[in-house]
Design brief:
It is elongated, with a radius of gyration of 21 Å. The longest helix is centred in the first third of the chain and has 37 residues, at 7-43. The chain is 74% helix and 0% strand. The chain has 91 residues and is an all-alpha fold. α1 packs antiparallel against α2. It contains 3 helices and no strands.
Length: 91
């Protein structure tokens, strides 16, 4: 439970987790793509490495990051009221 964290600290924590999950997902996707696309490219006699489109790849990575980060932050937002509700108040 994240009682006692400020709203900014909690959102930052959730974003770190979302970005880590995105990095793991992108890494696993890259491994799978190389394992599948390189043999397919060789069989199709297109060379050892398939074509690499930089703008498309950056766009897909940005979309994947947003697809993970935005819902995470949206679900963390209601929890910010928990701090106000259950925080200990010192006189």
């Amino acid at each position: 439970m994240t009682l006692g964290l400020s709203r900014f600290q909690m959102v930052r924590c959730v974003l770190y987790e979302a970005f880590a999950a995105t990095a793991v997902g992108v890494g696993l996707a890259a491994i799978t793509a190389v394992a599948c696309l390189v043999p397919l490219s060789i069989v199709l006699k297109a060379g050892a490495m398939p074509g690499f489109d930089v703008p498309w790849t950056i766009g897909v990575l940005a979309a994947a990051t947003l697809a993970v980060a935005v819902p995470s932050v949206m679900t963390a937002h209601p929890m910010s009221s928990v701090q106000e509700q259950f925080a200990r108040r010192t006189p």
